[in-house]
């Protein structure tokens, strides 16, 4: 049976979902927005770099809440609302969260809009060690 994780320490969900769902050692994290868990109604950070950092920090909060960290992440899906403008700056920030020899598989997609007016959203799949 899957475990549905909604963490008190995590960012306030912007829709009806769990922060993560786990089954058979696989942990699927819902896409995170650049909202501040300590001030969910605060304005979003300015610019794609700051929003990417906040999203990655939110993913780390969720992972920590289920006893994992970014080293357990195998795949990320990234969404950018201004792909051509923000792709390079996004990559510069994103890559600082993973060692060069341990970067997860990734897909990055340009989209027309994201919830809460965000510039970036990232979801991921992690695997719990056996």
Notes on the protein architecture:
The chain is of the alpha+beta class and 130 residues long. The protein is 24% helix and 28% strand. It is built from two helices and six strands; from the N terminus they run βββαβαββ. Strands 1-2-3-6-4-5 form a six-stranded mixed sheet. Helix 1 crosses helix 2.
**Rg to the nearest angstrom?**
14 Å
* Low-pLDDT runs: none
Helical proportion, percent range: 10-25%
Query: Oligomeric form of this entry?
Result: single chain
Shape: globular
Distance separating the two termini: 17 Å
What is the H/E string? EEEHEHEE
Average pLDDT, all residues: 96
Q: Strands of the biggest beta sheet: in what spatial order?
A: 1-2-3-6-4-5
Topology at a glance:
Layout lengths: L2 E3 L14 E4 L2 E7 L14 H19 L7 E8 L2 H12 L10 E6 L9 E8 L3
Helix pairs in contact: 1-2
Task: Label this structure with key terms.
6 strands; six-stranded mixed beta sheet; 130 residues; globular; alpha+beta
